[in-house]
Amino acid sequence: NAGVTQTPKFRILKIGQSMTLQCTQDMNHNYMYWYRQDPGMGLKLIYYSVGAGITDKGEVPNGYNVSRSTTEDFPLRLELAAPSQTSVYFCASSYTPQQISGNTIYFGEGSWLTVV
Amino acid sequence: AQSVTQLGSHVSVSEGALVLLRCNYSSSVPPYLFWYVQYPNQGLQLLLKYTSAATLVKGINGFEAEFKKSETSFHLTKPSAHMSDAAEYFCAVTTGRRALTFGSGTRLQVQP
Fold first, then answer.
1. Residue A33, strand partner residues
2. Of A11, A27, B45, B83, whose Cβ has the fewest other Cβ atoms within 10 Å?
């Protein structure tokens, strides 16, 4: 099993450009998440999804959009890249919500994004 | 509300020495607590989790953590550090009503 796969691993964007971070999981998980990790900080939840067609905002959603057309895929869209979006982005998934019995979530390897 | 505080952004130990990484939580209801490890340029891996069963939780790679309600703590320990333990460690909490809240991380260095 591949688990959670993110692409690209590294990307440099110019201010104002747009891009999509791809995330796919092959574990048939209903729940998927996007986090960002800034230097010296913990992970902050950007968006999450509880199933195909259903998404909701997390702690830091501004400047991002998501969609969930299939169970497997949960892309994250940056429409107008800003330097403040320079970060490491992690996609994750879980079979049930994180908040039920402390269910384990599975993380991708991360996408390093630099906006210049 | 839920939050977690990791004391010490950097910890350095000698190989073979005790590892102690500190985590304190705040929660209005009984929490679920996690420790994750992140090796350079990799994603997070679950080390161990506390889900209201035994208060002493054993994880992978010889790590363990003890839930202490009176101290609102969930410190991570390992009796003898190995060079391969050098990584960043994150404590996380959920109360059952919200997604995980992560601490700011502790970078562990292991000196030969």
1. A48, A92
2. B83
Instruction: Collect all residues of chain A within an 8 Å Cβ-Cβ radius of residue B44.
Output: 43, 90, 107
Residue A4's CB is within 10 A of a number of other CB atoms, namely 24
CA distance A42 to chain B (A): 4
Q: What b/e string do you get for A29-40 counting C-beta neighbours within 10 Å, with b at 16 or more?
A: bbbbbbbbbeee
Distance CA B112, CA B107 (A): 16
A74, A34 Cβ separation under 8 angstroms: yes
Interchain proximity B102–A108, CB inside 8 Å: no
Compute the C-alpha angle B38/B30/A32, nearest 5°. 45
CA A57 to chain centre: 12
**Cβ–Cβ < 8 Å for A94, A3:** no
Distance between A110 CA and the closest CA of chain B, angstroms: 6
Give residue-wise pLDDT tens across range A79-114: 899 999 999 999 999 887 765 555 678 889 899 999
